[in-house]
Structures are given as structure tokens and as C-alpha cells.
Design brief:
The protein is of the alpha/beta class. It folds into 2 domains: 181 residues, no CATH class; 167 residues, Glycogen Phosphorylase B (Rossmann fold), CATH 3.40.50. It is built from 15 helices and 10 strands. It has a 6-stranded mixed beta sheet. Strands 8-7-9-10 form a 4-stranded parallel beta sheet, sandwiched between helices. α1 crosses α15, α11 crosses α14 and α14 crosses α15. The longest helix is centred in the C-terminal third of the chain and has 19 residues. The radius of gyration is 21 Å and the shape is globular. It starts with a strand and ends with a helix.
Length: 373
């Protein structure tokens, strides 16, 4: 087999890249893959990365070069919530300049219907591929990723945004965020170890409160779900809105203190059923992958994106099928009361995660896809 090497161009947030870096790190021994981290911009992608109108999207774009023998491929992993492209204000979704110059564009929230009706995406549809949703893990190669603390991106001619709706705020803000990313996440193995937790929570639904006007409908749906759950007092339910800011008085009775990362994972793993609601862009959120990884049964809203998940895994259809808040809550209540059914679904979810979504499996899928191009 020809020698294989992978270069990660460290232009994104470690939060969004860590899951995939973990997968490639796992392949170093299994497939004799050499993995490098570079802070320099690749010549082929430099103009796209340095395009000032699109730099705010870089924080969630993981960029790579894969080489096998004499062949090489440039690819990116787009973890943005939006399944569309906004070519006017360029606030979220696809990064068009990168889409135009990479060999493969892996999209977390992949929606073929949106691609087909969007001319800017349809012209490149052959290179857009679905990929598993992530959750942050302690990344490998921390020393190499720490170079970002002393090598500000601006030295290389670009200013990546810090997060959704957070433009680049200078070297110190970027460095503080990178330091938090490197320090606060659990390893993948530590997260998976929570599968063995004792199930003493019937239903878990702790969710962030977002207060902008475009969030109102989603917050109202979540509120209605919680109110319905509150009508079943016999349940041991952990639920409520959490956030850094004071939530509106209307929702104050459903406030929940913020859970640290480890406490959130531990409580989720203890649940018989977790409530799943779509992300703010009707996207598949990281709560989906966490529930699958921990082997927890789900009562949730439909998975709008990545339709292949539902096609390949029919047991997901009964879990992600509820639009009406009352119906969703009632299903969660009934499922929590049926311990055998909840346990069965949890086992199926964990098995699907291990075979289709886990970091190593995802990394293998990427390399196999590239080699098949």
C-alpha cells in the first residue's frame, strides 16, 4: 500500500475539528497514516482562506490535504448548522470559495434537496458529501495545536471568526478560546465510558436559551415540551432552560442552572430517554451524536438533514418523528415508562454510532471516499 499522509491546516476552532482529528489520529497505527498540523496556508487554498468576505465562517471549517503515493486531495469538513448558502451577507452555511477549490467538501448538515435547488451548490454537487455530526472531544496532538497560542492567524493573512455571530476579535480573544478548547473537553474514551451509567433519570431535556427574534419559535416549542413533561410529576425529569444571561420572565419557572461539560455528559448518560430538538438552523445538533454515543433512547423532532441516516437505520425513524410538542413529550413519557423498549433503542443507537459515526469510522469513510474519486 502506498504511503499515506494527512495535513490539517489549523485555521478553524479546535472545538469543531477535534472529533475528526481524533479519528485520523486513530488511523495512524491502523492504516499507517502520518498526520501533520500546519499553521501555514496551502497555496491552492490561500485565496479562498484569505477572502475577507468569507473569513468569518472559517472557525467551523476544518481544512486538510491527503496524500497517497503521487496523488493528493484537498478537502474540508463544513460543520456549520445551516444546510444552505448565503452569498449575500455570508453569515452561515457553505463557504463558497472553499467549495469551488477543494476536491471534496464534506458537509455535516447535508441536504440534497437544498443543493438541487441552489445554483451555487448544484454546480458542485458531485464533490459535496454527507458526513457524521460531531461533538467536541479532547483533541490529539495538543502541542502542535498549541502553536496557535503564539502564532496569531493574522500573521498568515486571515481573521477567522470566533463563533457564530462572533467576528474575529484579535489575537488575545482567539488565544483564550483555543486555550479553553484544549483544556476543557473530555477524551473520547472518557465520554464513551459513561455508557455504563445507572439509569436513574427518566427524561433529560436541559437546553440553552437563545433570545434573538429568529429564535422565538424554537424556544416556544421547547417551552411547550417542558410544560407537558411537567404534567407527569411521577417522572424523575431533569429539564429546563440554561444560559449565561437572565431568561425572560415567561420561562423563569423552567430555568435550570448551567451544567459543566462533565456533569452534562454524566446526567445525559443516566437518562432513560433524552429529548432531542433541532438546532437553531433546523440542523442536526451535537446532542444527536452524543445521545447515540452514550446509547440513550431518544424522543425527538425529525432529522431534516442527512437523509441517509434514516434510510440506513430504520430504528431512528420512530425516535425522530415528532413535530407537535405535546406528542413529542407524550412519547418521551411513554418511552420512559417502558424500560425494556428504551434499553433496546439505546443499544441500537450505540451500535449504530460505533459502526457509522464514531471518529475512527468517520475518518476511514473520508479516506475511502477520496481514494474512490
Amino acid at each position: 500500500m502506498s504511503a499515506m499522509s494527512l495535513t490539517f491546516y489549523d485555521t478553524s476552532s479546535a472545538y469543531y475539528a477535534s472529533y475528526y482529528l481524533k479519528g485520523f489520529d486513530d488511523l495512524k497505527k491502523i492504516r499507517n497514516l502520518k498526520v501533520h498540523i500546519s499553521n501555514a496556508l496551502p497555496g491552492r487554498l490561500k485565496s479562498a482562506i484569505k477572502n475577507p468576505e468569507w473569513q468569518n465562517l472559517l472557525f467551523a471549517m476544518s481544512l486538510f490535504k491527503f496524500r497517497q503515493g503521487n496523488r493528493e486531495w484537498y478537502f474540508c469538513i463544513d460543520t456549520h448548522d445551516s444546510d444552505s448558502v448565503n452569498s449575500i451577507d455570508k453569515t452561515r452555511g457553505y463557504h463558497l470559495p472553499l467549495l469551488q477549490c477543494v476536491d471534496a467538501y464534506f458537509k455535516v448538515n447535508y441536504n440534497p434537496e437544498v443543493i438541487e435547488r441552489t445554483p451555487e451548490l448544484k454546480v458542485s454537487r458531485a464533490k459535496i458529501r454527507s458526513i457524521a455530526q460531531f461533538f467536541p472531544v479532547r483533541p490529539p496532538m495538543i502541542l502542535s495545536l498549541s502553536r496557535r497560542l503564539v502564532l496569531p492567524p493574522i500573521l498568515f493573512g486571515y481573521k477567522p471568526g470566533l463563533d457564530h455571530d462572533q467576528p474575529y476579535a484579535g489575537y488575545l480573544a482567539d488565544a483564550r478560546k483555543r486555550l479553553r478548547d484544549l483544556r476543557k473537553f473530555q477524551s473520547f474514551e472518557e465520554i464513551i465510558a459513561h455508557r455504563g451509567a445507572r439509569k436513574d433519570v427518566d427524561v433529560f431535556f436541559v437546553t440553552s436559551f437563545y433570545g434573538k427574534e429568529r429564535h422565538e419559535a424554537a424556544m416556544e416549542r421547547r417551552y411547550q415540551i417542558m410544560k407537558r413533561l411537567a404534567c407527569a410529576p411521577a417522572l424523575n425529569t431533569v429539564m429546563g432552560f440554561t444560559g449565561f444571561k437572565k431568561i425572560p420572565d415567561k420561562y423563569a419557572d423552567l430555568f435550570h442552572r448551567r451544567l459543566g461539560r462533565s456533569e452534562y455528559l454524566e446526567t445525559l448518560a443516566r437518562a432513560r430517554v433524552v429529548i432531542y430538538t433541532q438546532g437553531m438552523e433546523a440542523c442536526i445538533s451535537s446532542r444527536f451524536s452524543l445521545a447515540m454515543a452514550l446509547g440513550v433512547a431518544v424522543a425527538g423532532e425529525p432529522l431534516v438533514n442527512n437523509p441517509g441516516l434514516l434510510t440506513a437505520n430504520t430504528h431512528l425513524s420512530e425516535q425522530f418523528a415528532y413535530v407537535d410538542p405535546d406528542e413529542l413529550a407524550d412519547h418521551a413519557i411513554n418511552l420512559a415508562a417502558d424500560a425494556g423498549k428504551a434499553r433496546e433503542l439505546g443499544v441500537l443507537n450505540a451500535a449504530m454510532f460505533d459502526s457509522q459515526i464514531a471518529p475512527r469510522v468517520t475518518a476511514e469513510y473520508i479516506l475511502d471516499t477520496l481514494c474512490g474519486c
